[in-house]
Specification:
Length: 328
Amino acid sequence: RIGVAAASPPSPEAARRVAAELVWTFRSFAYVSHVSIEDASGRPWSLPRVAPGPLAIDAFAEASPSDAQLSRQLFVVNRGHLARAVDVGGSVQMVAVAPAASHVTAADVRGDGSQAAVVENGTTIRLVGVSEDSSQQELSAGAVGRPDYARQGEVFVPVDGGVRVLTGGSWRPTPVAGLPAGSVTRVRVAPDGVRIAIVVRLPDGRGALGIARVERSSGGVTLSGWREVVVQARDDRPAPVLDVGWDTDSSLMVVADLGGNAVVVQTGQEGGVATNLGPASTEGLSEISVAPGVAPVVLRDSGEVLRYSSNLRWLPYMTGVTGVIYPD
């Protein structure tokens, strides 16, 4: 029990910050299970978005003073809702999360698994709690694509053919220096947060993959130095790129159209030699989700999810899905 003597009570948000700091301070003591914060008269503090009563020692996971422990749980979009994919007795169950979200068309989940950026009806993006009914930072536009969290906390998202970044509490248009004429369809931030893979649909219809630098300053976030990472097709022409993800700090997994078949290829961030990982099928692939240390998954146009096993094998994992997400 902690008593706080103050001439006047702090604002609700200030009280929440102080409570988070106290909880994290006492986490290092194995015998502490709860923290109760009271004012000088013995009355418990009232905190926004927190149930009354003592605070569990694992509260405020999002306020970790160090890099969050990344969740490698797979999330999916199913029937317009965000869900967690859970292996139960040899089958995969979908457990609904993010109660504040509906009509979800795309999403990403923050690395600690506590918050999601969801796109609703392809036109509105907002941040919602994964386990609590909360919502903030809404933006509406003509067309909003799949968002992506950076480890530094920003959210990057294709909006109306360009890129927007949630930073400093607002969604800011962010030009990409060096980007060719076209429409941005995919953005994926590298695990270190200082590079970003961007797919742009060129005027001829081909999806071109490139990497740009992410630069942060007091003035905000800028993207510069976009250069194409060429994935070669069989006829030595650049293959159209549909989607991309980072499987390490320096290598990419790319969904590309090789001779009419969409397959996954692995390539370095500098381009060069690419390894075809399959799957061997004429059915289209619409999306990939990959993160360091976990098996990548791909989404077929039919809604079937395949998970990579080994030796170019992709095994059926689940069906009825329209989006696949590993937190990052």
